[in-house]
Amino acid sequence: MAAKRLDAIIFGATGFTGKYTVFEAVSVLKGLSWGIAGRNHEKLQGVLKEMGDKAKTDLSQTPIIIADVNNESSLLEMAKRCRIVVNTAGPYRFYGEKVVKACIEAGTHHVDVSGEPQYMETMQLKYNYKAKEKGVYVISACGFDSIPADMGVQFIEKNFDGVVNSVESFVHMGVKGGTKGLGRASLNTGTWESAVHAIANRSESQAIRRELFPDRLPDFSPKLKARPPFSRSTEVDKVLLPFPETDRSVIMRTQRYLYEHDKKRPVQMQAYLTLPSRLAASVVVFVALIVGIFAKFEFGRQLLLKYPSFFSGGMASRTGPSQARMERSFFKMTMKARGWPKSDRLAEVTDQYTSPPTKELTVRVTGPNPGYGSTCVALLSTARTILLESDKMPDTGGVLPPGAAFAKTSLISELEKHEHGIKFEIVANK
User: Coil, helix or strand for 274?
Assistant: First the structure.
């Protein structure tokens, strides 16, 4: 007798992100049937015991499925066992495509927390039409990269009451009460490895995008110009550096989709990391330059991956951040939108405004533990939303960014329900 099909399976559950996804699943997937998957049955049992004790819940009867990224038949069997695969097994550049392929073949939805633009855009290029044909949603960037930013833009547009021309986001990450005694590490080496390979292969993105989007979007004015590095923002009174490209690339994919399918004027976007001083910003730039140079060469990448703590300035470690640090870490994203009131709306989406923007809206998006708390809640919330609200999602499937997929769903409300969820609020409306 065939086993009953589960609602969701968390794949890669023995990894650092995976095991905390199991912990959050106790509350986020409440009322749904779910299991976990990976290569080693004993380790999977250990995760259920550890996270069950942490959640004060008996997880001993949770289904365990054995699946290995190097065994494609096992991936297919796993995908056939559920309605959606929650994939935490990165780096996705190396391990993601086989899981996506298995899910599409099985007619099973797929979500992951990739922050790797090359992987995400390659999946859209190769599998979008196949996913539509099978009625399957494949959605990446469902963690800190890039739910706060992409859904933040959707939140802005729903509350702007007019036409949004541009959005600037200012990201602050910190630890309540300071970091003394908590250890310096804020990343696990799995996250570090994904970042190193994304940096090393950044040049691939342009070629992928030219093939994925052969037609350029129209130019809309006024043009949003990037602020210079080390400038100080009056909005948050912090020194700015350009934020890594994941948020912006994901948002622009969403905006292109909405322009092509809903005839909506695309929002321009720039993202910035905020720091307390130019000295702190200089240290970040120095570390980023070293990593960028080393990542270009095979030998350099080997060193970066062998000595993550040294090359990251202590931010990455094989054991990941301490429990105390995770409990006290947080992020705050301030998003400032500019545009025109409803009364100034133009007749056609391609029409150009001749007057500068006269309306502003400022939104704040906040959450705890961006790496392994908010990220896990966001990932599971996207899975729950697909299972329960697919009738509110576009087309019948496809490889989509979060903003395009969830614009008309209640994902934001779902995110706000949970202790480690993400909050969206309006702080100024002019």
Answer: strand
Note the pLDDT of residue 83.
Answer: 98
CB 400 within 8 A of CB 257: yes
d(CA 208, CA 196): 19
What angle do helix axes 92-106 and 72-80 make, rounded to 10 degrees?
A: 50
Tens of pLDDT, residues 361-405: 999 999 999 989 999 999 999 999 999 999 999 988 999 999 999
For residue 147, give both structure tokens. 């739910």
DSSP state of 168: E
pLDDT in tens, 112-153: 999 999 999 999 999 999 999 999 999 999 999 899 999 999
CA 291, chain centre distance (Å): 22
| DSSP H helical ranges for 235-331 | 246-262, 278-295, 298-306, 308-311, 323-328
Best-predicted range by mean pLDDT (197-206, 353-362, 408-417): 408-417
Spatial distance between the Cα atoms of 344 and 163, rounded to a whole number of angstroms: 8
Q: How many CB atoms lie within 10 A of CB 274?
A: 25
Cα separation, 428 vs 426, whole angstroms: 6
- What is the Cα–Cα distance from 248 to 153, expressed in whole angstroms? 11
Coil, helix or strand for 128?
A: helix
Sequential DSSP letters for 388-409: HHGGGSSSS-EEE-HHHHHTTS
pTM score: 0.95
How far apart CA 58 and CA 305 sit, in angstroms, is 37
Total number of residues shown for the chain: 430
Is there a contact between 33 and 25 (Cβ–Cβ < 8 Å)? Answer: no
Q: Kindly state the tokens that stand for 430.
A: 């002019």
